[in-house]
Structures are given as C-alpha cells and as structure tokens.
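Appendix B. Chain record.
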Amino acid sequence: MKLITLGTAAGNSARDRANASNLIICGGKYYLIDAGEPVKALIFSRDIPYTDIQKIFISHCHEDHLGGLMGLLNCFFRELRKDPAADVTVYLPEMAAQIPVEGFMKVIHREIPEGKLTFKPVESGTFFDDGNLKITAYLTDHLEGRGPSYSFLLEHEEERLLITGDLRWGDFGDFPHAALEKPAVCLCEAVHCPLETIVDIVRDLPIKKLIFTHYKASLLKEDHDIFLEKTKGLPYPVVLAEDDEEFDVEE
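Structure tokens predicted for this chain:
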C-alpha cells in the first residue's frame, strides 16, 4: 500500500500547499481520502487518468476536505469517453452533501450519465471492503455535534494505515485509540491541538511511523526546529509530510 499526501495544508490553501487530500495506491487500484482543492490538478500532475479514481471517501464536510470534489467529478465525467466502463462511488459522512454536488453538476451543464455516480454513507465500523482494501470508520467529534466526522483505518493484507482526519479542537480527546489494537502507520492531523498534547497522546501507542499532515506552514519554516525538538522523544519515526510526498505502508 502506498500513501501519497497530495495536500497537507490546514484551512486555506496556498501557492505551494494544497488542501487535504490523500491518494492510496493499493493492489493496482486508486482510492482517494478527502478531496480538498485543487485535487483535480494534483491528480492530473501525476498523469493518472481521472477515470481511475473510482472510490472517494470524505472524512467530514468542511470545505478544505470537500471543496475539490465537484471539479474532480466534472473531470471524471468528461473523460468517460476514454473509459466508458468506469464509474465512481463517493462515500459521504453526511448524505445531505449529495444535493449540492449534484446541483453543481447541473449548474455547469455537466450531465451525469446514468449509473456512473453513486453516493453511499460513511458509517461507523467496517463500511467498505472490495477484497483489496478494507476501510473501518471511527466516529470523531471535530464538528462538535454539528455533524459527523471520521477517522479511517485502511487495511490491506498485513498493512495498516490510520488516517485520523480532523479531530476535536484543543484536546484530541476523540483520537481513535481503538484503531490501534494492532500496530499501524498513522497519518495524523496537527493543527487543532497543541503539539505537546498530541505527542503525549500518541507516545505509547503501537505506531510504526507517525506522519503529520494538516499543519500550519510555519512548521516547515521558522518553527521546524521546535517541531523536531518536541517530537524527538517519540519511540518511532516521525515525519512532517509535504504536498505530493509518497510513503510506503510496510508490513
């Protein structure tokens, strides 16, 4: 299983950093976790046919995780002439999001061919298993009761990847400990909680490698030495992911 952190920015995107989106390559198939802007351009830059992105999973309905979905779907439908057998399924944490997505397609006069777009709900527990990749969702409290948000545990054979999504502001009290009954690589957001608190929460967990994403740009610049100092005591490798960076999820 390979993880590509297409976009790592928190909140607003920037000239050199995109909003949250993570591409998983597993068994020759592509799976997209979140679809922040400008995900369609990031997919294009990797020379991946849009019609290869057939499974999309949204962790929660904030714009920086969802805002690129409509543009990506538009490209998918436009490219169907090259791969007419392709179809796409979008897993939504709130099915109410289906209405504006379909409305956008109607406004831009992009017809959705019958049977080519399916919406399904993200649900707590194992909600997806295509025989190649299994995904289990863990309910979190990032939206503080205004709607559901989820962490995702991805499993392929003995490989395990935990993507935390966005967690509760201030204390990370909803960190999905239950997903780490067995060791896993962890892609953890790092903007909604003080770094010291995050380090305390994850220090003794069975994490193979900790990859931080969704962080303030200063961590790559003036605060980078502080980041290294605060994480150096963790008993496993720690990485601050950059946009379009590749990671192998090893057994």
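Further analysis of this model is presented in Appendix C.
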